[in-house]
Amino acid sequence: MQEWNAFRRIEAAFNHEIPDKVPKFEVSIELKELNSLMNGQAAPMALLFFSPQQINFFHKAPPIVSFLKKLLRYPRLFYPLGRIVPRIISKLHRQFKYDMFTYTAGIPMIFTERLFRDFKTEDKDRVVKHRDGRIVWKSSLEGAHARYGFMQSPADWDQYLQFDPDHPGNYFLTESAITACEKLDIVPLFTLYGGAGFEELCGLFGFETLFKLLYTDKSFVKQAVKELNDYAIAVAEGVLQRGGKYLYFTADLGFTGRSIISPRLFREFFKPAMTKFCRRVHQLGGKAMFHSCGNVVELLPDLVETGIDALHPIEGTAGNDILDFKRRYGKVLTLVGNVPIPLLTHGTPKENYDYVLYLLENVSKDGGHIISSSHSITQWCKLENFYAYYKAVEDYGKYPITIRKS
């Protein structure tokens, strides 16, 4: 069989067809041995999608925010940059023959300038505080992040958020990325903000305040989810109309052993929005990959009913059984996963090689599977284990899959 390109291979996986070999995807590859400049913990999202370093910069020079918003109305100015950035970001992915990587269509135009006037960083950008002194985000020396929510009540919503899906800044990297990625032979998976609503609201209000609102102010939560979802749909339309096809939206709905919210709450507040989002994506010929860390076993039937095309990353250590998911929903849901991060971090090369063979033989064998880690290749993963994962797919990932027993 003649070797396919990445676009044909990914399309086959989403259509539950048999490609030439198993497609590969990672959100990011952060191994310092391969790229000393990459550190997924160095610039985390503190407020919305802004890093503490960005918050510090804009807090010191608020007029720059307004200037940048005006500049982004002319996306052609950024076209040369947009053709270079995908090459840089996907360098390791292409080196290790990945077929898909996550990329941004632009900057979500949802924030007001007041966000940067009211919040600032301290302690070498390890703490973000409101001007009244309360801590809304902090990072430990080990790199763990704690978000407490920067909104205290529904009254803060309009103070800090203003959704503008028509702003060209939402899409200023889209067309140039598609052109570049076609030449590079790697599929851009465009990340979108607001498609599900749950994770975004957790980041805005913090878990404690959000869960109080789920019971004390249901009408506000439903309206907030609607505004987030309407924005995400409008941006999805813009990305798809500019030539994109694959969209990535996230909501970490679980932790180890169980989901964070009950199926009842999910159905009441978030399932309708996700269903609406997926329906519109499909109407425009797109595909939607949904990401949720943690255990989603209880929520899986509802997630499938929303119309998502693919589920990532199906963490086994959280209690998800990818073989059971394959048996129950493999005909309608593309599975994306799930080489365990703990195994990549603490296991041996042989254990990682053997686990990948297990996935290839039991999950990949009849299509509908994109192999990836159970989150991303973090800086704590061992290089030799990553090599073993890569080698196993190279050795046995071609169709028809036949695993030689030792």
Binned strand content = 5-15%
Number of strands: 14
Strand order within the widest beta sheet: 1-2-7-8-11-12-13-14
Class from secondary-structure proportions? alpha/beta
Flag low-confidence runs: none
Mean pLDDT: 95
CATH level 1 class label: Alpha Beta
* Count of helix runs: 17
How many structural domains are formed by the residues? 1
What's the architecture, going by CATH?
Answer: Alpha-Beta Barrel
Largest sheet: 8 strands, parallel
N/C terminus separation: 26 Å
Q: How would you name the oligomeric state of the polypeptide chains in this document?
A: single chain
Q: What gross morphology would you assign?
A: globular
